[in-house]
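User: Okay, second chain of the day. Same drill as before: sequence in, structure tokens out.
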Amino acid sequence: MPHFMRLFSLFSLILLISTVRADCECGYTVNGTLFTDLTESDFLHIKNINESGWIPQTYTVDPELSRGPYGKDASPDQIVLNPLKSRYDWTGDGIKGGDAGAQILVRGGDPGEGGMIRMGELDTNRTDILYGSFRAGIKLTGLPGTCGAFFWYLNDTQEIDMEFLSSQFNATSHPVNLVLQSQKSLAAGFNAHDTDSFQVHQLPFDPSGGFHEYRFDWFNDHVDFYADGVLLKTMSGDGVPSDPGHLALSQWSNGDPMWSGGPPAEDAVMTVSYVKGYFNSSDTARQDDWRNRCTDINAPKATCEVPEIPAPPQGNVSANTFFFSQQQNMTVNQSIPSGNPNTVTSGAWSVQASTQGIFTILLLSSFVLLTVWWP
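Assistant: Same drill. Structure tokens below.
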């Protein structure tokens, strides 16, 4: 092949490569708002907590600081991964029996006067989360005496909570406590109950009877709370956080009769089937990554709408919820836990292979073959 023809072919290939785009490269939209980053954890199939994007917490809080008759003792031992037996299933018992997913435990029994109640907490390793939409599939315990929580946290005056007090569950009452911890709650001795950023909302189902999706959407001026896709409450005002933090899941008890009650008579289990977050990052490197990959926000499929769940995530059909990280070409330049199926792993983390990258390799390989074999 003449030299100029080879150069022309190479130029044509480069031009073709530059026009190939990944889906969702500009981000993910929720109710018309664009978020640049995502984190997704499919706990029905993740087998290694180190590949989940979550960190089991270790800490103790003495009874005085926990504001109860007992203290709190968080340890990784109270986090048990119990994935399904087959990666192709979306319901059934886990490999250790019982509900499949990430189990967060509160140990039962009397710890003795001034004792510590063993409990579990998971925090994301991402601490750059600034505004976003966050949802989790959770089955709460039916044993009285714990507080199960799905929340975003920076500090005790910047916190978004969905909390479930199992002592409040009975045949006619299944409440969720919606809370924005703020300067007002600090002034009230960390009691948000009498502030305008606290509401007890009755749910039309038993949270301990099966898995349901709990969600909060955090914007710069308000927070929307949901259950199974239904809007429960919108909170606004100066209690809305304005700085980056992390997501957390926990179940705990300190024996406070005005809140968690307990401890439970026996070990209490809160099970999480998934967590999904679509958010903006406060990290300048992640912001630069977004600007580099999002060259045309108006291009077809440059943004992807986050789907709503059609039903509570239970059973082999409805529990198979949509993950961008389990699709081809929808999470380019995103950090995805390698416990998710259909990802290309590298150590404890993975980045999903992109169509553009694969196509680039194929085209360049073809050009090399043409150069070598075409006289």
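The CA atoms of residues 42 and 274 lie 5 Å apart.

User: Thanks, on to the next one.
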